[in-house]
# Entry
Amino acid sequence: MRSIDEIEAFRADLCDVAEPLFAARGAQGVSMRQIADALGVSPMTPYRYFNSRDDILAAVRQRGFERFAAMLEAARGGSGGSRRARALAAGRAYVDFAIANKHVYRLMFDIEQPDDGGEGPLGGAVARARRTLTVHGDDLVGGGATEEEAREVEAVAWATLHGAVLLELAGRLPPGSARRIVEDPRSWPRV
# Structure
């Protein structure tokens, strides 16, 4: 019998193997057998740890959202006191995460699962990541912007970052373009 730590380690290994498979073949293009083959275990082994392929996909996405949120939180927390410094640090962290984790980034934002808005682990991770994206708007409100203005700026900033990252990942923008957009103050919406 495996210990709790061994079970969690195996689940993590399984997710590590499944992530690039899902990214390369799409959510519906991966079977439990393919995941088991890639991990080097019997076809039934994944079922001991996950009920279905969708459960594995949810776990992969949950881990991605948790890493994403942690990176943004750390960047914001270590960036100094000004609103601008915090927003710039978060923008850099956003781009750095997406470029370094392109497979999971696509899975996080290109796929929607029933748990995304739920109370379970995936829903909680999605909500945490969303909160990391709303703190810039909260800062703007604290600086005198209306709630509506702040949320509009927040949405434009997120759309700008997301669009630049996806275009760069698709090879439609040269490498480093998304980071340059973050660094260029003219690209950021103002209130």
Remarks:
- The chain has a mean pLDDT of 89.
- The helical segments are 4-25, 32-39, 53-77, 83-100, 102-110, 121-142, 147-169, 177-183.
- The two ends are 58 Å apart (CA to CA).
- Residues 53-77 form the longest helix (25 residues).
